[in-house]
C-alpha cells in the first residue's frame, strides 16, 4: 500500500495531492488569477506559490487525515512548465523530503495528466489527446514509451484560446478558456477561419492572428460568434488528427486530458467521431483535467511501485521535458 504526496506548480495552478493505492485522499488547489486582459508572469506566479504552499500542505494533510510519517514518497513536477513556478515548488518538495526523511521522485507533468486520466476513467490503451495551455499532443503507448504521433508546431491550443480571451478582456476566473466556452454557446454565425493541419501536426498561431483582426472591428459578427468559430475550428483540427492516429493504431478508445479537456464542446465533437468508428471517448471533469497535485502523486506512486526514484543530484527542474523521454516501466501491456 503506497501513500504518495504530489506537488504541482508548473503554471498558475498550485496543487498538493495525497493518494493511497489509487484512491485520492486530498487534492486542494490554489489558482493565481490576474486581471482581465493580462496573462501571468512567471515571477509573480512563483511568488503566489511560495505564499500559499505551506497553508495548502496543511490543508492537504488535514483533509487526508494522515501524518507525514505515513507518507512513503514525495513527488513533484520536474517539467515541463514555467521555470520560476517549477523551481519554487520543487525547492519546497525537496525541503519536505529532507525534513520527513522520504525518497523523492521528479514527475513529468504530461505523464501525470495521462496516468491520472487513465486511473479515473478506466481507459485501457487509448489514443491520448493531451490539450492544455502549454501542450498539444496526440499520444499512443508502445514499448514502454508514450509516443507522440502529432503535436502543435507553434503555440498550444489552450494558449490560443487564452490569448484570444485576453484580447477580448474576458475574466481569468475561473479560466479564460472556460469563459470562451460559455460565450461560444450563444454563437450563431460561423466565421470561416484558417484550418492548418500538416500531416499529424497542427498550427494555431495563424488562426489566432486571423481572428484577432475580426475582434478589433467585429464587423457584422458578435463576440459570441467569434468564440464559437474559434472553438469549432481548432477542435475540428484536434478531432481530425486524433482520428488519424486511431486509424493508424487500430485503437478503439480516446482519452482526453489536460485543462482544455474540460471543454464540453470538444468532448461532444470527439464523441461524434468515436461513435462513427464504434469507439469510446473518455474524459474527466475539472477536478482532474486541470493541473492538480493528485496527478503528480499518482504518477509518482506508479514509478515508486516499480523502484524508480530520483537521485538527489537529479532533483532539478527542466522547462523542456518531452512526454516520450520517460521510460514507462510501470506498464506491462504491449
TrEMBL record:
Gene Ontology MF terms: metal ion binding; tRNA N(6)-L-threonylcarbamoyladenine synthase activity
Catalysed reaction(s)?
Answer: L-threonylcarbamoyladenylate + adenosine(37) in tRNA = N(6)-L-threonylcarbamoyladenosine(37) in tRNA + AMP + H(+)
- Highest taxon of source: Eukaryota
The cellular component terms of Gene Ontology attached to this UniProt record, alphabetical and capped at eight, are: cytoplasm; EKC/KEOPS complex; nucleus
Q: Where does a divalent metal cation bind?
A: 109, 113, 130, 291
What UniProt keywords are attached to this protein's entry?
A: Acyltransferase, Cytoplasm, Metal-binding, Nucleus, Transferase, tRNA processing
| InterPro entries per UniProt | ATPase_NBD (IPR043129), Gcp-like_dom (IPR000905), KAE1/TsaD (IPR017861), Kae1_archaea_euk (IPR034680), Peptidase_M22_CS (IPR017860)
State where substrate binds.
130-134, 162, 177, 181, 263
Where is the protein situated, by its record's location annotation?
Cytoplasm; Nucleus
The cofactor(s) it depends on are: a divalent metal cation
Span-the-membrane segments of this chain are none
The Gene Ontology biological process annotation of the record reads:
tRNA threonylcarbamoyladenosine modification
- Indicate the enzyme's highest-level EC class: transferase
Q: What remark does the entry make about the cofactor?
A: Binds 1 divalent metal cation per subunit.
Gene3D superfamilies assigned to the protein according to its UniProt record, in alphabetical order: 3.30.420.40
* Major location (coarse): cytoplasm
EC number, as in UniProt: 2.3.1.234
Spell out the HAMAP family in the cross-references.
Kae1
PANTHER family with a match to the protein in the record: TRNA N6-ADENOSINE THREONYLCARBAMOYLTRANSFERASE
The text of the family note is: Belongs to the KAE1 / TsaD family.
Q: What name has this protein been given in UniProt?
A: N(6)-L-threonylcarbamoyladenine synthase
Amino acid at each position: 500500500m503506497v501513500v504518495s504526496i504530489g506537488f504541482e506548480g508548473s503554471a498558475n495552478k498550485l496543487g498538493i495531492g495525497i493518494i493511497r493505492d489509487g484512491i485520492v485522499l486530498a487534492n486542494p488547489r490554489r489558482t493565481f488569477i490576474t486581471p482581465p486582459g493580462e496573462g501571468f508572469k512567471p515571477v509573480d506566479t512563483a511568488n503566489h506559490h511560495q505564499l500559499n504552499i505551506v497553508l495548502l500542505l496543511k490543508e492537504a494533510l488535514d483533509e487526508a487525515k494522515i501524518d507525514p510519517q505515513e507518507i512513503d514518497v514525495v513527488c513533484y513536477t520536474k517539467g515541463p512548465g514555467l521555470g520560476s513556478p517549477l523551481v519554487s515548488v520543487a525547492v519546497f518538495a525537496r525541503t519536505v523530503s529532507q525534513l520527513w526523511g522520504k525518497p523523492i521522485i521528479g514527475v513529468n507533468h504530461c505523464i501525470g495528466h495521462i496516468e491520472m486520466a487513465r486511473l479515473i476513467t478506466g481507459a485501457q490503451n487509448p489514443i491520448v489527446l493531451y490539450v492544455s495551455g502549454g501542450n498539444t499532443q496526440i499520444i499512443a503507448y508502445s514499448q514502454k514509451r508514450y509516443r507522440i504521433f502529432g503535436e502543435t508546431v507553434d503555440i498550444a491550443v489552450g494558449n490560443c484560446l487564452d490569448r484570444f480571451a485576453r484580447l477580448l478582456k474576458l475574466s481569468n476566473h475561473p479560466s479564460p478558456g472556460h469563459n470562451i466556452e460559455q460565450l461560444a454557446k450563444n454563437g450563431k454565425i460561423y466565421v470561416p477561419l484558417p484550418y492548418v493541419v500538416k500531416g499529424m501536426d497542427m498550427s494555431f498561431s495563424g488562426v489566432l492572428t486571423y481572428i484577432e483582426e475580426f475582434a478589433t472591428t467585429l464587423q457584422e459578427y458578435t463576440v459570441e460568434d467569434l468564440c464559437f468559430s474559434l472553438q469549432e475550428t481548432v477542435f475540428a483540427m484536434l478531432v481530425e488528427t486524433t482520428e488519424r492516429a486511431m486509424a493508424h493504431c487500430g485503437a478503439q478508445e480516446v482519452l482526453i486530458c489536460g485543462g482544455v479537456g474540460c471543454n464540453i464542446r470538444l468532448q461532444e465533437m470527439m464523441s461524434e467521431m468515436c461513435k462513427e468508428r464504434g469507439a469510446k471517448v473518455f474524459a474527466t471533469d475539472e477536478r482532474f483535467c486541470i493541473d492538480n497535485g493528485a496527478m503528480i502523486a499518482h504518477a509518482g506512486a506508479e514509478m515508486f511501485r516499480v523502484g524508480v526514484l530520483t537521485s538527489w543530484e537529479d532533483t532539478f527542474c527542466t522547462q523542456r521535458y518531452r512526454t516520450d523521454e520517460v521510460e514507462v516501466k510501470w506498464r506491462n501491456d504491449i
